[in-house]
Please model this.
Amino acid sequence: MLNDNQEIQYHNNNTFSVFIGLLVGGLAGAVAMLLLAPQSGKDTRVQIQKKGIELRDQTSKMIEDTVSSARSNANRISISGRMKAEELLQQGQALVVEQLDHVSEAAQAGKKTIQGS
Model:
């Protein structure tokens, strides 16, 4: 069994060991921080500025591509619409001619009927 003096001495050794551990750990952390510290503020600002310019250029390129694509699609739709309108116009004209032929035939038949009576 441990007597009171031995317990106090053991307790003091543990406290001292913890204190030494904290001190060594703190020093190791400080050294690591200094060795692995990020670049200076000026370098960081320059890097941020360059990245901002790069992102602006990418955004401009993306916008140009999107506008170009939209114009291309609009032209394609416009041309398709014109072609469809011309096709419908031709079909309409063909139907008008066909109906006029039917009306003309009916008129001729009516005329013959009237003349034959």
